[in-house]
Amino acid sequence: MRNPLFPLFVFLGLVLLEIFGFAWVGDAVGALMTVALVIITAATGLLLFRLQGFYHWRRLQQSLARGEVPARGLVEGWLLMSAAVLLLLPGFFTDAAGFVLLVPPLRRWAANGILRRGMVRARTGGPGGGQHSDTIEGEFRHHDEGRESPDDRLDHDDRR
To answer: Which of 2, 13, 20, 83 is placed for a possible disulfide with 101 were both Cys, Cβ 3.0 to 4.6 Å?
Structure first.
């Protein structure tokens, strides 16, 4: 059975790792340069994310226009968004992970791994297709206030 505190321990471990990284880099290059490096890496990463995000968005639109289901493209888009979040978080290890996700071959490899393991499940359905539909069919009537009679009112109360 999985420990329910596991995510907390992972989060605390990452925070401690980032603090260690700040101390190590700060000792090597100084405090001001450390802050400048964090800002520069975040800005550079977000610029790369923006460029790749537009390119990726165009690819998704093209595959949808061809009638394809872009499963890998959607997972890659999720990984791009994850890269942006990692780049916004202050720290050198999160920036490194974000930059790794910005490299297209590595991102494709990660997306293929996620899809191969079945970590993402897709459910398709449309009009008349799919067994589990969230569509509720019915009828309604629009009545102006004050004009409706009690018998015309739609009422789901069976106590009448």
So the answer is: 83
